[in-house]
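Quick illustration for those who missed Monday's session on complexes.
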Amino acid sequence: MDLQYDAKKVEKLAQEYWNQHKTFEVDENNPGDKFYCLCMFPYPSGNIHMGHVRNYSIGDAIVRYQKMLGKNVLQPMGWDAFGLPAENAAIKNKTHPAKWTYKNIANMKKQLQAMGYGYDWSRELATCDPNYYKWEQWLFLRLYEKGLAYKKNSVVNWDPVDKTVLANEQVINGRGWRSDALVEKKEISQWFLKITEYADELLAELDGMTGWPEQVRTMQKNWIGKSTGAKINFGIVNSQNTIEVFTTRADTLFGCTYIALAPDHEFAKQAAKQDNKINAFLEKCKLSSTAEADFSTAEKEGIETNIKAVNPLTGDLLPVWIANYILSSYGTGAIMAVPAHDERDYQFAKKYNLPIKQIIEYSNETQMSIKDGPLTNRGVLINSSKYNGLTSEIAAQEIVNDLKILGSGSKSISYRLRDWGVSRQRYWGAPIPIIYCHNCDIVPVPDKDLPVVLPDNFEFSDNPKVLETLPEFYNVKCPKCGNDAVRETDTFDTFFESSWYYARFACRDQENSMLDKRVDYWAPIDLYIGGIEHAILHLLYARFFHKIMRDVGILKSNEPFARLFTQGMVLKDGSKMSKSKGNVVDPQDYIDKYGSDTLRLFIMFSAPPELSLEWSDTGVEAAHRFIKKLWLIVKKHVDCGIVTEKNIPGNLNSIQMDLRRKLHETLAKVTDNMESRFAFNTVIAAIMELLNAYNKFNIQSQTDKIISQEVMDTVVLMLSPIIPHVSHTLWQSLGHKKAIVNELWPTVDKKALLKETMEMSVQIDGKLRASLEVPSNADRNTIETEVLLLEKIKKHLTNKSVKKIIIVPGKLVNIVSV
Ligand code: ANZ
Ligand code: ZN
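Prediction with ANZ bound:
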């Protein structure tokens, strides 16, 4: 055994062993329960960062632990390879995005391998590989056939600098998340996936998903945003048309004083054609962002039309306004405004001097006046003719019933969730497999012509819509009629690729289908680990894809991820590492200087995995010192002579028993923390404490040596999921032939946990009188003798005599007296 710890040497040895023996390559034929652990795959930006190191070190520790439980463990890795940065880099460096991407992949793979993560690299995939995206094109065509993929005109957030459509979440304070440019609204024709068709299932299943953090489930629930209410039709004076509104407060129908339309409501557009002022107002609305967060805070503005609506129950004539606070994409894009009982309507009515009519009151005294603001709680109806005196709940039901009889309304459910717009006007993504023909309109690319490969033999310029400039790409013959036709030049949103990669890992080599039955062996994923920032979109899209893949018939389960764990961030000086702040620490520097085990140990020790971790160079050094010390401790034992004897002799002295108890208490605690809470920081702390106790242990006898060996073996086994390289070598030094990665997790010796002495409570005639400390193995005679010698007992027994003594082993002595 080397005198000192040499990280480079040790890490090379272990990694060579794992590679040669294909330690982490698995198939479905291994015995043992399966365990599929997946960390969110990285975007190949060039280098791994500390966030990756943290995420992947946690995953790897769990993987190695689960493997030691005898499970058939899969941990794959791949690359989320499409996306804007590659394109931007390509424009900047005049290289092709593919070249840039694959170069980055090679570098990052090298870094991940230097970290020694236990990946089944035979399953590696990059989403920009035509063999990968071929299958999502295939799936898209199935969705198209089912009517779940469709094209429609829609208003989008347009980033004028990146020249791309942005999702609402990519608009921050009205600006593009990458470019910081003011976002504009633009109407274009785009492809959508009908995720709303699955809204109910996506929502309903959340309740049973106890393996997910409560917080994430709540976020998804709110995102789906199910509202139960009614649709009500308001007639229009001098017209056959009606305005349909969605409301969750049908009880307030008598308080409606105006109707408000979204700026891109059909009737608003019509009104704009006849009125310049309205037209100007609509133009102005187009400049503001479509992000919902901005909606609620923006100054309420509107303009009145000359339409008059009719309240279906009261016959009241109501003015119809166009208002910027009405979302076109929610409900029906029109509302019945009830200023007395709705915050937004109240503000609007105040501003434009519209009537405010109270129709709800509360029975309690503390009621505010309508002058101070809207009364938004439910209560009891007033000013509502025959509904007066009813509670809001009952009134809503009766009003909807009555509307239904009149043919003017019915119950309705609205979701906040929108269909997923998947078209991106960018080059570096998977082409959407659609052809447009003058005769045949939209024609899906036939399956046999898949994949539609992204062309790469051209000069890369700064035109973001490269595909539109490549006639050799877009000019095709129509597959139906054979005439000249053109291809779709939009590509898929990159969330498309990340929505199903977890399933493809199960059958990466399958050339004839998207998935095969191996997916049903591995799915659902037992543990998915990644950042909380993916709580909504990625995880919702992946859940949606799982369900559509099930309904297309290529897998069987309902949900992709049985358990989800979201790790905390890595901070430096209290804030997130970022290039702009200049506080980035590069993992590579630390791998080079200390080795990857040190980096892993620091990351796992410094904070519970779900909380933020503050970067600290002294912390890293401390972790490194610990490993060096561990090396010396093991070496000292080895120098005394390793022992292969496993049986612990029966007659231990108290020092020996104490150490063994400490060892097995530690093992029990560590096992529990590894298993359920992933509290690696306490795992490591407990092992350090054990080593402190061990350091005070003098090896004098053969029995001492046996116990010392037991401690050393167990410590190295327990640490091996966290610092696998040094554990690999130490295990060999401790005399074991089998590689530690193939060993089983040690089991707790329950007998060792027993205390040397035990405390028993002593009762006389059922009343607690004293306690007694006796050796754990004390027999009945000893206990009886000792108990009667206790001063307190003697005192209570004066003038009495003992009839019998009942002993509950390990707990209680009861003296029955007469
Ligand atoms: C009348 C009313 C009276 C309303 C009242 C509320 C309170 P949630 O819970 O989010 O579903 N609304 C409907 N469609 C809208 C749209 N496209 N843009 C903006 N607001 C819209 O909210 C439903 C309520 O939000 C609906 O019920 C409607 O106003 C408004 F005292 O109708 B309510
Ligand atoms: Zn055609």
